[in-house]
Amino acid sequence: MATARSGKSAHVTLLEQLMYTKDTARSPDDGILRLCEAIQINWGDLNQDLQYDLKEAWGILSQAESKEVAFAIRANLTFNGFHDDDSPIHGKAVTFRARDCLHVKEKYNEDWWIGRVVKVDAPIGFIPTPIKLRKLAQEASTLQRETAVKRNTSMDKDKKKEDTAVTKTVSRTGSLESLHGIPQKRVSEIEPKSQGPYEAVPVIRPIVLMGPSLRGFDITDLMHKALIHALIENFEDRLEILPIEKSMIDAFKSSIDANKNTTKPDCLDQITDRIFTAAKSFKLLFVDLRLDTPLPLRNCSLAPILVHIKISNIKVLQNLIKQRGAEQKRALTSQCYGANKLNDLDRKNFDVILSEHDFKDAKEHLMNYLEKYWKATRPFQATKKHGSIIHNTPGFISRLQGIKSPKPPHYTAARHMGSVRS
């Protein structure tokens, strides 16, 4: 395998390969830069063209199943592996949707990686590299121009033939959405990504809790701590709690633009580096970012599992707040406003919404989701017991947070008392 070129020139070359255009005036986001670094670390220069026969391809694919994950990516487009499958082994191209996360095991050649979608029972197969996607985009653009010429020269006479040509064009490029050969309406729900088809994300998505109202107030903090306690109790050595310094979180929150709900690129660097490093342990990862809205995380490369603790009935929330004393009652309006803002967001902003009134039901809902995700990240090891690197206990969380971990019944009692009085 060729050794990766070092220095600025190597980064520029890799970026040119990853992007659809060679416009280096536009600065790529951290997800693209991290993807370049991962490729350099694991496989070196992408220009090397490897060729294997069918038997060797099957052997490489089979061996890759037991290999560790090299890095993870999140797709910015939809790829249908069933259309005109030209992968090294016919029928083994991976199909994925935009926003899906994929685990990449190894490089096969410059056109294909070997990996799988992070879903339960998802098969391992061949994932198109950015270079392959760019080739398909160019092919789609060429076919579209040819079709347009035929349409202009014989508008009425060959209408039926033109329709057939358009159908063939879509068929050949049907594996690639959000590119030139596909109508825009098919990708209207996907935000345009000018940096490239993929962005690097942690190999394990961090868990982030939000709601039911604003952080820093009793009701929200107590519910979060009850769920953290339940996570530790259920997953034990399969869970790592990543402590983030308060000063770092305060700096992150202060950088959020209140109007656009976005973050400046540099503000997430330290937190992102910590999360990428911690995710290498391949355990479930909990991070307390103390955010009141998911919008600042929408376009970052953390790809968190966002959990919304939801109280739809504001009267229930009001009763819970009033029971916490006069000091909490003085902030009643702001807490209700924060809850309404969260409740009004589209469900697509969250991965899990806990709207149950009983803690036991809410806990079961979240644990089932995370168990499923755990199995999805390790399809061949889900039933094996993994050793512990950091064993977290309720006392460990207490030291991080500076207060006692509440017992789960606090959550149940709080919600029941609010329900009775509403």
List the helices and strands and how they pair.
Layout: H1 8-18, H2 30-43, H3 54-64, E1 71-75, E2 101-107, E3 112-117, E4 125-128, H4 130-153, H5 159-173, E5 198-201, E6 206-210, H6 218-235, E7 239-242, H7 246-254, H8 269-278, E8 284-287, E9 305-309, H9 314-322, H10 326-329, H11 332-343, E10 352-354, H12 359-377, H13 394-401, H14 409-421
Parallel strand pairs: 6-8, 6-9, 7-8, 9-10
Antiparallel strand pairs: 1-2, 1-5, 2-3, 3-4
Helix pairs in contact: 1-2, 4-5, 6-14, 9-11, 9-14
Description of the molecule:
- With 422 residues, the protein is of the alpha/beta class.
- The chain contains 14 helices and ten strands.
- The chain has a five-stranded antiparallel β-sheet. A five-stranded parallel β-sheet has the order 7-8-6-9-10, with helices on both faces.
- β3 (112-117) and β4 form a beta hairpin.
- The longest helix has 24 residues, at 130-153.
- Mean pLDDT is 75; it is low at 1-28, 44-49, 166-191, 382-410 and 417-422.
